[in-house]
Amino acid sequence: MRSIERVRRLCLALPEAFELETWDHPTFRVGGGRGKIFCTAAPDGSTVTVKADPVEREALLAQGELFYVPPYVGNKGWVGIHSDHPLTDWEEVSELIATSYCLVAPKRLAARVKSPPPLDG
In sequence order, what are the beta bridge partners of 50? Predict the structure, then answer.
């Protein structure tokens, strides 16, 4: 399965999540109107950007090559993931997407997320 398809499946499995193409790439959102972004991806899914728990973010960035500080939002608590890297752990990506969603979503929706979205659909 292509990376963008995996990212899309994981994001859209979350309560009331939706996708909008913005800046020529997919953004995944939750909430009313245009929503709040909880994940962005390169058009091919080769990179994913999510909001991260501050402590977890530092640990991820310390790992090196898989994770990076993304432009524009890196200084606002977001982390980038090279999702097409051979060492990418998709269970971890799923967890990071769920965390990002919960940090951004309205409390009533975040409370519905008990575990990360399943990898197998």
Answer: 39, 79
